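Q: I'm writing up a methods section and want to include an example of the input and output format. Could you take the sequence below and give the corresponding predicted structure tokens, formatted cleanly so I can copy it straight into the document?
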Amino acid sequence: MKRDTQQRRAIVAALERAGRPLGPREVLQAAAPAAPGLGIATVYRTLKALLHAGRINPVHIRGQSPRYEPAGKRHHHYFRCRRCDHVFEIAGCPGNLEPLVPRGFVLEDHEVVLYGLCAACRKKGPSTR
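A: Here is the clean output for your methods example:
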């Protein structure tokens, strides 16, 4: 991986500190206080390098640009708030999904994404959906 810079350290720290997957603009916002002058192009380049080095994993949510989280986490799923668009980790997994698989099929992987309102948005009132 490329040299260790203040900006790179700030980006890695922002991802580790967040406790949830972040999009590039969220990374910029979280890392900027520790790296004055940090720009979105540097964030994108650093995310690409971290991804290539296996230090982060992409999180794909239907209809959204990828978000990123530190690599090495245990299997987990996600909750996406429909109001603020933040994505949160859900610890664990619902368990054995084999009974849902059609006869003769082989389950190789799965994703679970729950949608609704996060606690902060819920306090603001009911969803408009």
